[in-house]
Amino acid sequence: MDVNGKAAKVAADGRFRAEVTLFPGFNFISVVATDPLGNTEQKIISVVLPSQPFVLEVNEPKDQSTVTESPILVSGRTGSEAVVSINGGSVLVNEIGMFSTLVALESGANIIHIVANNIDGQVLEALIAIIYRP
Predict the structure, then answer these.
(1) Per mean pLDDT, which of 22-26, 44-48, 109-113, 120-124 is the most reliable?
(2) Nearest-CA neighbor of 78 among 111, 115, 104?
(3) Are residues 86 and 112 in the same domain?
(4) Which domain holds residue 63?
(5) More reliable by pLDDT, 125 or 21
(6) Percent of the chain residues past pLDDT 70, beyond the cut
């Protein structure tokens, strides 16, 4: 028994168990059963995972923090199909909505401007104030 190309655990009574990763929207799961003679049967199952609310969370750095090194890591989470920019530069967003990049700081006060745009045209912004003391 294979589920999405990976072997599934099959119990003596024929029941099976497998874990698959689901993404927001439509997901297709392929189940292939093979008997001892090599005969196979495949079923495709569709599952819809509701979209999550559009968010912009900044994990690091913390707002109004003081740092002694530059560049610093800026990371967070948003919608998986969002387009993110930090201080005007594009940042990649992975399939679960996580993003991260290094941002160079100037000595003294710095503002990090994070913008996320989703496919519905919604825009979320965050401003993070950082003091850099080299």
Answers:
(1) 109-113
(2) 115
(3) yes
(4) 56-132
(5) 125
(6) 99
Q: pTM for the complete prediction?
A: 0.62
Same domain, 63 and 22: no
Q: Is the pLDDT of residue 73 over 90?
A: yes
In the listed set 28, 49, 70, which residue is the last one of a domain according to the structure? 49
CA atoms within 13 A on the CB side of 1: 14
Q: Which residues of 37-67 are buried (b: 16+ CB within 10 A; e: fewer)?
A: eeeeeeeeeeeeeeeeebebebeebeeeeeb
- Burial (CB < 10 A; 0-12, 13-18, 19+), residue 134, is exposed
Q: Which of 79, 76, 83 is nearest to 58 (CA)?
A: 76
- Amino acid 26: pLDDT: 87
Residue 11 sits in the same domain as residue 75: no
